[in-house]
Amino acid sequence: MPYTLLGKEKQNGQTRVTYRLTSHAESCRYAVLSLTHAGMGENTGWEVTGYGSQQSYLADKSRGFKVETDDMMSCYLVRNQ
Predict the structure, then answer these.
(1) I need a surface site. Which of 21, 45, 65, 68 has the fewest CB within 10 A?
(2) pLDDT for 14-34, tens place per residue?
(3) CA 56 to chain centre
(4) Residue 15 and residue 27: Cα distance in Å, rounded?
């Protein structure tokens, strides 16, 4: 999937990297993916949030990433050993 980097931020020991998909299949409901790492090691602590639009991502960002909306979904990732 082609994408552009919307931002990379480090704050309070947490890293957030956000991508906007420049094209995606109609079956994919997310246009923006935000990956957040707050764990100690690289294999744990990753959370991925998908947003239906860039506007939805920006609205969530302006609220401090604290309110879920109908067009977003988050999941926690752990690498299999």
Answers:
(1) 68
(2) 899 999 999 878 888 899 999
(3) 12
(4) 29
